[in-house]
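Researcher: Next sequence.
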Amino acid sequence: MNLQLTFAGGVRIAPAALVIHYSRSSGPGGQNVNKLNTKAALWLDPAGISGLDDAARNRLLSLCANRLTADGRIQLIAETRRTQEGNRQALFEKLENLLLLAQKPPKPRRKTRPTRASARRRLESKRRRSEIKSSRRPSPRPAE
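Model: Next structure:
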């Protein structure tokens, strides 16, 4: 049986591509923090993701650039909730948000020009600043 996790936008992830590990958390929980392994860490192999086109996959990898491990897996960590289940849920929420961001193509930049009035104001302020600075300089001494 080939079960897959399904996310928004028709993205599917093979369970074999996911590794979830639990450890002691530094988050809230009082003395529970010292006793229970509530921190959840997820490692995801990008090759196990289906339903993303190449451009979206590249955007996902660039979004996760600081979360990539040496072997190219994406690492996500959640330790804000008090329970393993809560942190696991937070991990999948983070993952879903990243996948949604990766699927949205970037808005193309349209070239704009400054208005004539703003260019005039900029040059005017530069001229004023230049006059202030030149007034601080000592006047040249006459030639002897």
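Model: The longest strand covers residues 18-23. Strands lie at 5-7, 11-13, 18-23, 39-44, 49-50, 74-78.
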